[in-house]
Design goal:
The complex is a heterodimer of chains A (610) and B (297). With 610 residues, chain A is of the alpha/beta class. Chain A has helices at residues 8-74, 91-111, 118-141, 146-268, 273-300, 312-318, 320-326, 348-365, 383-388, 411-414, 434-444, 499-511, 522-531, 550-560, 574-578, 596-608; strands spanning 308-310, 331-337, 344-346, 370-381, 395-404, 448-454, 458-466, 491-495, 515-519, 537-541, 565-570, 589-591. Chain A has 16 helices and twelve strands. In chain A, the strands form three sheets. Chain A has a five-stranded mixed sheet with strand order 2-4-5-7-6. A five-stranded parallel sheet of chain A has the order 9-8-10-11-12, sandwiched between helices. In chain A, helix 12 links the parallel strand 8 (491-495) and strand 9 (515-519). Chain B folds into two domains: 35-117 and 227-292, D-Maltodextrin-Binding Protein, domain 2 (3-Layer(aba) Sandwich); 122-222, Periplasmic binding protein-like II (D-Maltodextrin-Binding Protein, domain 2, 3-Layer(aba) Sandwich). Helices cover 45% and strands 18% of the residues of chain B. Chain B is built from twelve helices and eleven strands. The chains are: A alpha/beta (610), B alpha/beta (297). At the A-B interface, helix 1, helix 3 and helix 4 of A face helix 1 and helix 10 of B.
């Protein structure tokens, strides 16, 4: 589920980009606002400067020059004349300066045509024209007329009014600039506070998201570690299963030889006295060895034989006596069985074995007494559960729980309890195969086992077995009444790479009246089949060297001779079974090690099939 | 992500809106009166006041093209009240009156007489007094004019402090406030106070109409010049009308026969433009005296 989301690096990168992007955006907003305000301000400033220039420079200078003319007139200096006559003052040049200044001031007005000076400027212009006219007249008469003086005074008045007006306008503009600056500062302040708050908010959000991404990543790592651990555990169990299966297979063959030869010995003569005693001892030991091997095979076998739809409740009930016998009186046994329990596709015997093993384990954990609870219920494992437990598959299950109030199992041991020959029990008290068998059974049944244990409080095994789609069929176990082994006269080809086993099979089948041919591998067997079309039955080991296993041999043989019956013998090995899909021969499978009677019955029943 | 973009939007709105408001602020609705009401202070009796102003009213009516009416207020605060309620569109305030109207009602100065730009106050003593300066009056009695008078109280108080280093309440044995400038003149003449400060225009008028003999009182000290009376309009008055009114006043020319009467009646030779900054000092003094607090409104 994590894989579908963006990776944490992406989340962090995106958040960082967001933050940087927003900071840049904010800077742009701030800078844009700032430069806009500044351009407005500089416009106002320029306007104010022009007012200032007009008043303090041009009009004031013009006014000064006019003052000079007036002073010259009042002091009686001739207004006319050349510089020679009037070295102190030249009215012509003064007038020229006045006009220059007024023109310069007029030019400034055109930039900001606010119209508020227009009337005064016109008045000033009229006065100036009049002054110039009078000036011309005065040069002729050489005396300044009263009108001329009045006109000069009027011009002077206009100039001083303009000076004042312009400085007032400038002061007004300065006020405007001042308040504009104040407002700009306030807005900038509010803006930066807002940006700051936004930045803090965004940064917090971003950091929060990054934190969340990191947390998620850490959680994911932890989860992955635990899943990996479970996976390793399951792989280890697989490896152990294969190893065990291989060893058990070899041992089976050896035991087959021993048991077969014992059987032959018993057929050959009737033993008495010490010889019988020795033979019985060998037989007992061989049986014990066969049992251990069987248990190992039960643990390592991948596919169950004799699978049927089973009601687990019935299996538990059928074992009540056994359970009671197994469990000591200090232990209180309670059952909590669900009605309407689903059926499950398992081997009935395997289930009984597993149940017994679990009950024995629980008993052993409660040496000082306690309570044993057996529960069943219908359970559905969802994908969430299965993502935590990689060995489980989602689906409907029948849950069988065995709880005890015993010593519990430490976490270290929990990893290893399903391994074969791993035991915490005292020497001689347990084989270490009980839970391994349970594990093998559950694997075979495509189920799932979950262990909860707390030291000093107790242990619960939850066994999940897949729900069956079939209805329960109650098998009536056929009693094997007849002691005499069935005989026959058909031709049988025995194939096995183990010469001892071939010899035993040949011997016992010949004793039963069959005509027996032998082969040591698949190719040889095929040659035999081709040479002898009268062969009725092929009895072959599954695992053989030479590139052709029992299944492949059977396949080839049946292809060539459709009437041929096939019986395969096998101790389990996972490899041989998983490599081929010829399940149609699975039913005709004899488990190794087999007894002579098993072989005789199986062969007869096969040959009797039409 | 959504909330982040909301914040961005908020910030942009704030910036743009704030800046817009900055440029748009203070632009209240402009108004144009149908009849221009001129508000004046009661310097004289109603009849002579109206006679004095009638040439100006005629001139304004003719030049501006609006009917002009004179409204005579009963006192300083009444004039401010009239201005506040826009019962007058243009008013001739004393310095303090203007500063207050400017602070509270957004009044805008328009023009002032040439003499108003260089107004002074006179410290008068009885002609027979041998005192030579203000320092000689330590422990003597003293009278200001009206408490709200710029020339009779505010500016004299300021110049007493800055030029003479005198705090009246500490320096004089008694400080009176006369109801009007002529009352101050009478209280000096009648020995009620030793020293008084008055508006020179009033003193000159009293001498002119015979209420005061020219040698009755002696000028002890003249304050430095400061701007006083000013013709004021509402800042919301139509801008064109404002400019027109101002130019009409500025165009008054003593050299023209038809203007001479108007200017003589108003006691000046010309009008000059007035700015808020002319009254900056007065504003500071008034503020320091608590006259611009909202309670003075």
């Amino acid at each position: 589920m994590l894989d579908q989301k963006d990776s944490w690096i992406t989340v962090i990168r995106r958040q960082v980009y967001n933050m940087i992007g927003l900071v840049i955006l904010f800077i742009f907003i701030g800078a844009g606002f700032f430069s806009w305000q500044n351009s407005v301000l500089s416009g106002l400033q320029e306007h104010a400067n022009e007012y200032h220039l007009a008043s303090t420079t041009h009009y004031l200078k013009a006014s000064d020059e006019l003052q000079n003319i007036l002073i010259a007139l009042l002091s009686g200096t001739p207004v006319s004349g050349s510089t020679l006559e009037s070295p102190r003052f030249n009215n012509q040049s003064a007038m020229y300066i006045i006009q220059q200044e007024v023109n310069a001031a007029h030019k400034l007005q055109t930039t900001y045509a606010d119209g508020q000076f227009d009337a005064l400027l016109n008045m000033l212009d009229t006065s100036l024209v009049d002054v110039v006219t009078f000036m011309g007249a005065v040069q002729q008469s050489s005396t300044a007329s009263e009108q001329f003086k009045n006109e000069l005074a009027r011009t002077q008045k206009s100039l001083s009014q303009l000076v004042r007006l312009h400085s007032i306008a400038r002061e007004g503009m300065m006020d405007k600039i001042h308040s504009h600056k104040n407002r700009k500062n306030i807005i900038l302040f509010v803006l930066s506070i807002t940006l700051l708050v936004a930045a803090i908010f965004i940064t917090r959000r971003g950091l929060g998201a990054i934190q969340a991404a990191i947390d998620e990543r850490v959680a994911y790592e932890e989860e992955r570690k635990s899943i990996e651990k479970q996976l390793r555990q399951s792989q280890k169990m697989d490896a152990i299963g294969q190893l065990t299966g291989g060893i058990a297979h070899d041992f089976n063959n050896i035991l087959g030889i021993i048991i077969g030869n014992l059987d032959l010995l018993k057929f050959s003569f009737s033993a008495e006295g010490k010889v019988l005693q020795y033979l019985t001892a060998i037989e007992t030991a061989a049986d014990r060895a066969a049992n251990v091997t069987k248990q190992l095979l039960v643990f390592s076998r991948q596919q169950a034989a004799d699978v049927a739809a089973v009601d687990i409740n019935r299996a538990i009930s059928s074992m009540d006596i056994l359970t009671t016998l197994t469990v000591s009186p200090q232990i209180e046994v309670s059952e909590n069985l669900a009605t309407d329990l689903w059926l499950t596709d398992i081997n009935f015997g395997d289930l009984q074995d597993a149940l017994l093993n679990l009950v024995i384990n629980a008993r052993d954990a409660m040496s000082a007494g306690g309570r044993l609870t057996i529960e069943t219920r219908n359970a559905t494992l969802d994908s969430a559960y299965c993502s935590q437990h990689p060995t489980a598959q989602p689906g409907e299950y029948v849950q069988l729980s065995i709880s005890d109030t015993g010593t519990g199992i430490s976490v270290d041991l929990q990893e290893r309890i399903f391994e074969p020959f791993f035991t915490t029990k005292a020497e001689g008290k347990g084989t270490g195969l009980g839970l391994a068998m349970v594990f093998g059974f559950i694997e075979r049944s495509k189920g799932h086992i979950k262990l909860y244990s707390e030291q000093g409080i107790g242990t619960t095994f939850h066994v999940y077995l897949p729900r069956s789609k079939m209805k329960e069929e109650v098998k009536v176990s056929s009693e094997q009444g007849a002691k005499a082994l069935p005989t026959g006269n058909e031709t049988i080809l025995v194939v096995d790479d183990e010469p001892g086993l071939v010899a035993i099979a040949q011997e016992s089948l010949q004793l039963l009246g069959y005509h027996v041919l032998t082969a040591s591998d698949g190719n040889q067997a095929m040659e035999q089949l081709a040479a002898e079309p009268s062969i009725d039955l092929l009895f072959s080991d599954v695992v053989m060297p030479g590139g052709m296993n029992g299944y492949q041999l059977a396949e080839g043989a049946v292809e060539a001779m459709p009437e041929l019956k096939v019986l395969l013998a096998s101790g389990y090995t996972k490899k041989a079974i998983s490599q081929n899909g010829q399940a149609r021969f699975d039913a005709n499978l004899l488990n190794k090690p087999y007894t002579q009677s098993e072989l005789a019955l199986q062969i007869r029943s096969l040959l009797d099939q039409s | 992500m959504k909330s982040i973009w909301l914040i961005v939007l908020l910030v942009i709105t704030l910036a743009v809106g704030g800046a817009y408001l900055t440029n748009q602020s203070m632009q209240e609705s402009v108004y144009t009166p149908l009849i221009l009401h001129l508000g004046v202070l009661p310097d004289q009796d109603d009849e002579s006041l109206r006679a004095r102003y009638s040439p100006l009213l005629d001139y304004l009516t003719e030049e501006v093209g609006l009917e002009v009416e004179l409204v005579v207020a009963s006192d300083y605060s009444h004039l401010r009240h009239l201005f506040k309620n826009k019962e007058v569109d243009m008013a001739r305030f004393g310095g303090l009156g203007f500063v207050q109207a400017n602070t509270f009602y957004d009044a805008e100065p328009l023009v002032m007489r040439d003499i108003d730009t260089r107004f002074v106050s006179w410290f008068l003593v009885r002609a027979n007094s041998d005192a030579q300066n203000i320092a000689d009056f330590k422990g003597k009695t003293f009278s200001f004019g009206s408490q709200l008078s710029t020339s009779g109280h505010i500016m004299p108080r300021y110049f007493l402090r800055t030029n003479q280093h005198v705090v009246p309440e500490e320096f004089f044995s008694r400080v009176d406030y006369a109801a009007a400038h002529d009352k101050t003149v009478y209280s000096i003449l009648n020995n009620e106070v030793d020293l008084g400060v008055v508006n020179p225009v009033i003193v000159k008028a009293m001498i002119e109409d015979g209420r005061l003999k020219e040698d009755g009182l002696r000028l002890l000290w003249e304050t430095p010049p400061y701007p006083d009376y000013v013709w004021t309009v509402h800042s919301t008055l139509n801008g064109e009308l404002k400019t027109k009114l101002r130019n009409t006043f500025l165009a008054l020319d003593i050299l023209q026969a038809k203007h001479k009467n108007i200017l003589n009646n108003l006691g000046c030779t010309e009008f000059l433009p007035a700015g808020v900054h002319d009254f900056k000092l007065l504003q500071e003094v008034a503020a320091s005296l608590g006259l611009l607090d909202s309670s003075a409104q």
